[in-house]
TrEMBL record:
Classification via InterPro entries: Host-pathogen_enzymatic-act, N2O_reductase_N, WD40/YVTN_repeat-like_dom_sf, YNCE-like_beta-prop
Gene3D superfamilies: YVTN repeat-like/Quinoprotein amine dehydrogenase
Protein name according to UniProt: YNCE-like beta-propeller domain-containing protein
Leader peptide range in chain numbering: 1-25
Region (Disordered): 31-60
UniProt KW keywords: Signal
Occurrences of domain YNCE-like beta-propeller (ranges): 261-379
This protein's record includes keyword Signal: yes
Transmembrane segments: none
PANTHER family on file: DIHYDRO-HEME D1 DEHYDROGENASE, PROTEIN NIRF
Amino acid sequence: MGVVRVNVRRRIATAAVLAATVVLGGCSGSGGTATAPPTAPATPAPVAATDGLPGMPPVPDAHDVYADAGANMLSDAAKAAKPLVYVPHTKSGEVRVIDPATFATVGTYRLGGELQHVVPSWDMRTLYATDDTTNKVVPFDPVTGKPGAAIPVQDPYNMYFTPDGTSAISVAEAQKRLVFYDPHTWVQQGDLPTPDCAGIDHADFTPDGRTAVFTCEFAGRVAVVDVARRTLLRTIDMPTRNRHMGPQDIKLAPDGSVFYIADSDQNGVWVLDGAATHVVREIPTGHGAHGLYLSRDATRLFVTNRHEGSVSVLDAYTGAPLTKWRIPGGSSPDMGNVSADGAQLWLSGRYDRAVYVLSTTDGSLIRKIAVGDGPHGLCVWPQPGRYSLGHTGITR
């Protein structure tokens, strides 16, 4: 699926958005909801290279920060990689490697611990399997698909890279802090305690790269971080503070106008303004909203509803619901990504030892692949883009 630049896709009718959004005044843990016309997201001004985080690649298109991550827009480093899908397992302590052409498992690497995510490095030359129980990351060579020697890292539940590529960030969920490392030597650079952000886990960055927003799953809020100064700017409570399985994955809209935040307990997506100051509305999606992934042309946002076995498809600019895909049979869609050509959405089945491959055209199930126990942060590689911000492949 090629890159599409059609402005009409970005202007969904007001009536559609009205039906899909819920004003915050009507939100509560058990009460009803009310609807009202939402405020249209403001289009941000173009981001000049001088305004961005020093050293960060410039933003080429202020209306689509993912413009350089379109279908098959592979960097030289990504072109060298063998097309493979890496599936870490939290229960069986292994990474299974799948050939996406045949859907066959071509490697099983028992690394021990509780493997959470497979994370592409900023320069796209290494993949890291994160293990937060034995405090390590295991590098994989994407050219061969094979692992190397483990690297000591503090509590890496998840991992991100600053947009300038100078730091790897271990999201130390159990320790309630962010630990910064040199991404080449793995010497610790410093850390940032986040004591009021229980369950810190997922993140995304503003278009200028200066601000990061981390979700706090067990505190019902997000933490807003100054990237250059490594300081906590503020925390923002969600209108309903779910503390069991609250805020999960987070994704910046293509034009930078808002952040979308999946909330499993809320069964939907919160919409945070692009400056990360307040929540503006809520979008119901489905039971157990969890992972957020963009189509390759950045016009659609896929939301995995883990507890109902479905994927909601939203307009990536307005948040308007477009359709919902049901995965047949018992399913628990969790984490994954879109293939380089944009044709397939790969997702781990967290609770049923499976990986699902869906068509991004109509959501049909192409293949269900049996894997190990507890598949989690699945990484489809290679991915288009100039650089990686981490997680399972956030590229720009």
